[in-house]
Specification:
The complex is a heterodimer of chains A (about 130) and B (about 190). By secondary structure, chain A is an all-alpha fold. Chain A has 5 helices and no strands. The mean pLDDT of chain A is about 75. Chain B has 9 helices and no strands. The interface between A and B is medium-sized, with 24 and 33 residues.
Chain lengths: ~130, ~190
């Protein structure tokens, strides 16, 4: 047998899986570990989401985000008012659509809902 | 437990399709890949010289790592070859960690080695591999079983490329001699690049 033929034959032999009596048990062990790792990961991600959401809400409350948003809304309203000083009064619309405080509570509410959804999904997976 | 229509659907899928579904979080699909290729991965680790228990542990770890990284599998080679490479690298890492990976530049012959002289002495691959020195067996299995190139083996073993080539050549010569077909000539003197 020439060298290439022998090496090709050797590769074919290596590619043949040996018949192992305990292959079912091995497969079950891998699947069990797979499922276990998956549960832990989902739980970890869910917990991290809840924690992150809680921290975000807390930080938002402490940083005076509401006041800053209100100020930003007011300044943008002024800019809009001067830009469209001959046209429609957008500043009134913006101020009516959502005051700074309202926007703050909407954002906070969304964060809390996201955290609760994350926790629920994590518990469902477990 | 009976086979459900979903089981039948999964069984009918190609490896590449199963891998794509596994990349989207499909653990059942990945389980089918484990069922298909578990023995092959365990087998290549044993052929490298791992004892059965270590081979099984490493094969499990290799499949779990493959699941983590399955999105990287693009179907360019076969799935089983990809997992075998992961398993081979894990085995080498384990051996380095255990400080038992020492390749001799001039390996000794295994003690009590009996060279088959007749066609009747012809033996299968697994038996033939047992007659190789550990370094030869490891290098041959890494190249022909796990599909690593000589350079990759040298890098993984932190060994000169020439040493790896030398181990592979000696190992191949011995295998050729032991696995020669009945009535066929074995020519162990042929050089291997």
């Amino acid at each position: 047998m020439d060298e290439r033929g022998f090496e090709a034959g050797l590769e074919r032999l290596f590619a043949q899986a040996p018949a192992l009596a305990d292959s079912d048990a091995f497969n079950r062990r891998v699947e069990r570990r797979l499922n276990r790792d998956w549960r832990w990961r989902t739980l970890g991600l869910g917990a991290a989401g809840v924690l992150g959401g809680a921290i975000a809400v807390t930080q938002s409350l402490h940083s005076g985000l509401g006041i800053k948003v209100q100020e930003a809304s007011a300044s943008s309203a002024h800019a809009a008012e001067s830009f469209y000083n001959q046209g429609i009064n957008f500043s009134d619309m913006l101020m009516q659509a959502g005051s700074g405080a309202n926007l703050f509570w909407i954002v906070s509410g969304c964060l809390i809902i996201a955290a609760v959804v994350g926790a629920t999904r994590a518990l469902d997976q477990v | 437990m009976g086979v459900t229509p979903d089981d039948r659907r999964i069984i009918g899928l190609h490896d590449v399709e199963l891998a794509a579904l596994a990349a989207a979080g499909g653990r059942r699909e990945f389980g089918e890949l484990v069922r298909r290729h578990g023995s092959a991965v365990r087998g290549v680790l044993r052929r490298m010289g791992a004892d059965p228990s270590t081979a099984d542990d490493l094969a499990q770890d290799a499949f779990l790592q493959a699941f983590e990284r399955v999105a990287e599998f693009r179907g360019e080679g076969t799935f089983v070859a990809w997992v075998k490479r992961i398993a081979a690298r894990m085995y080498l890492k384990r051996r380095r960690k255990d400080a038992i990976l020492v390749l001799e530049a001039e390996p000794r012959e295994p003690e009590g080695e009996a060279r088959p002289r007749h066609a009747a002495d012809r033996i299968d691959l697994d038996e033939a591999l047992k007659g190789l020195a550990p370094a030869e067996r490891l290098c041959v299995s890494l190249c022909y079983g796990a599909g690593l190139s000589h350079a990759e083996v040298a890098q993984a073993l932190n060994t000169p490329l020439g040493t790896v080539k030398s181990h592979v050549k000696r190992g191949l010569d011995k295998l050729r001699e032991r696995m020669a077909p009945p009535g066929g000539e074995s020519d162990g003197s042929r050089a291997h690049g």
